[in-house]
Design a protein that fits this description.
Order of helices and strands: EHEEEEHEEHEE
Structural class: alpha+beta
Strand content: 35-45%
Distance between the termini: 29 Å
Shape: globular
Radius of gyration: 17 Å
């Protein structure tokens, strides 16, 4: 996190609690040696790991399987100038265990577009960071327009 920038750092537990109610997240990965960001449906496991579901033949699966990626979810209220942002960073891997796959078919995230062959991608939560407006002492910052 950037110190003294008007944002309060969230601890790991609070950071992992926030995305539970978010409707969409973003997967950040590398595509043709450049940063790429895609909106995704997701499910957050208790461990903090992120689960995605997509087409087995998608470019996304080929780009992230075995790679370190970032997943970001946030909530922003521009009128109130409030909100939060959480980033989970870690290795991504396609779920290959048949029993785990069947379990995820029942409880896992659904893709936006149904595909004939869907895969689940598991992102390990090696690094979890979160922030919201406010100073470390709990003071909420406000911006006044002129």
């Amino acid at each position: 996190m950037y110190r003294n920038d008007g944002f309060r750092e969230l601890d790991r537990q609070e950071s992992l609690r926030r995305p539970a109610n978010a409707s969409v997240g973003r997967i950040v990965h590398t595509r043709d040696a450049l940063p790429a960001v895609l909106p995704v449906n997701f499910l957050l496991e208790e461990s903090g790991a992120v689960l995605l579901c997509t087409s087995a033949s998608s470019e996304l699966v080929r780009a992230i399987d075995g790679a370190v990626v970032a997943f970001e979810a946030d909530e922003v209220d521009t009128a109130a100038q409030s909100g939060w942002s959480v980033v989970v960073t870690g290795p991504a891997a396609v779920v290959t265990d048949p029993d785990e796959h069947e379990h995820l078919v029942r409880i896992g995230p659904r893709p936006w577009v149904p595909w004939p062959v869907e895969v689940f991608v598991h992102i390990e939560a090696e690094l979890v960071t979160g922030r919201e407006p406010g100073w470390p002492d709990g003071t909420v910052c406000s911006v006044k327009s002129s």
